């Protein structure tokens, strides 16, 4: 990933930024779902079998993508989950990610409890108030937060555990694929704008990968494991295609904002045009 390669070039033994705040779903959750009543939790083996801290609630055998980013940013340990973060430890950042969560509040409800993006933002507001108290000044806290890195990766569950799951959700009957993508984008815009209002300025927004190639989706649709469901991929692409204008809109409308789009789809397909987009960002903001 060129995004990670660039970060790797920056590492010099000390953190490149004072703090790192993380919003997302199971791809970044590192323990926030552990105490929730939900099927979406990973605080048991075989999760964590290759991780130095063992089972933590990460939905993987080892590190998550944000763990790697934290390392490349120069942090000497991983960013703690909101569920256990406290004291001055929050000054280096907080991970709000929650397995099953989405842009829409109702997404993933059939799995049980989760922390939607709206709720993650409310949790961040609590963190910001605590940082202001530690700093002794809202002005100092605002300056501090503007130097931090924020990553947001949401939307996968709004398809997997909402639009593409007609057994539990009526959204596919209520909206065309285009309408649903636009619904998500408009909601996402308001959420990212709220993050900006809480002091965020440097924000990397991850696009969605090829959900139609996920083993679970292939199994549900009876497709050979070596193939992909291109119908699903085309539906998800409608959301990704709208993310770039969203990023431009945020950067144009919010003074000092530096929102960046991380094109996960192009990275996964090794799209050579990605290099040019990364090295030559748009005047409206980076499109990576």
Strand content: 5-15%
Mean pLDDT equals: 88
Largest sheet: 4 strands, parallel
Task: Evaluate the radius of gyration.
Answer: 18 Å
- Low-confidence parts lasting 5 or more residues at pLDDT below 50? 270-288
Shape summary:
globular
What does it look like?
- The chain has 288 residues and is α/β, with parallel strands linked by helices.
- It is 42% helix and 7% strand.
- Helix 1 runs parallel beside helix 2.
- The termini are close together.
Can you give me a brief rundown of this structure?
It is built from 11 helices and 4 strands. It is of the alpha/beta class and 288 residues long.
Describe this protein with a few key phrases:
288 residues; alpha/beta; four-stranded parallel sheet; 42% helix; 7% strand
List the helices and strands and how they pair.
Layout: H1 2-10, E1 20-24, H2 65-73, H3 117-135, H4 138-145, E2 149-153, H5 156-163, H6 171-174, H7 177-197, E3 202-206, H8 215-220, H9 230-253, E4 258-262, H10 264-268, H11 273-279
Parallel strand pairs: 1-2, 2-3, 3-4
Helix pairs in contact: 1-2, 3-4, 7-9
């Amino acid at each position: 990933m060129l995004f990670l390669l660039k970060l790797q070039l920056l590492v010099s033994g000390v953190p490149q930024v004072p703090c790192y705040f993380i919003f997302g779903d199971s791809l970044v959750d590192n323990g926030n779902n552990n105490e929730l009543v939900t099927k979406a939790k990973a605080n048991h083996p075989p999760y964590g079998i290759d991780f130095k801290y063992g089972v933590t609630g990460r939905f993987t055998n080892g590190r998550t993508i944000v763990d790697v980013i934290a390392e490349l940013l120069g942090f000497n340990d991983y960013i703690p989950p909101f569920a256990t973060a406290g004291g001055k430890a929050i000054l280096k950042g907080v991970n709000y990610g929650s397995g099953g969560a989405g842009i829409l509040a109702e997404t993933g409800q059939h799995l049980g409890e989760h922390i939607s993006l709206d709720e993650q933002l409310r949790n961040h507001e609590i963190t910001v108030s605590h940082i202001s108290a530690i700093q002794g000044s809202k002005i100092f806290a605002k300056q501090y937060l503007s130097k931090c890195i924020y990553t947001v990766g949401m939307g996968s569950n709004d398809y997997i555990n909402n639009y593409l799951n007609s057994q539990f959700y009526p959204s596919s009957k209520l909206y065309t694929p285009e309408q649903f993508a636009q619904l998500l984008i408009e909601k996402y815009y308001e959420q990212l704008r709220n993050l900006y209002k809480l002091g965020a300025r440097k924000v990397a927004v991850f696009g969605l990968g090829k959900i139609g190639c996920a083993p679970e989706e292939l199994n549900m649709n009876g497709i050979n494991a070596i193939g992909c469901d291109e119908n699903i991929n085309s539906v998800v692409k409608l959301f990704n295609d709208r993310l770039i204008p969203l990023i431009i809109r945020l950067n144009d409308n919010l003074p000092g904002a530096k929102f960046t789009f991380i094109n996960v789809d192009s990275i996964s397909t090794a799209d050579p045009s990605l290099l040019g987009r990364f090295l030559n960002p748009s005047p409206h903001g980076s499109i990576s």
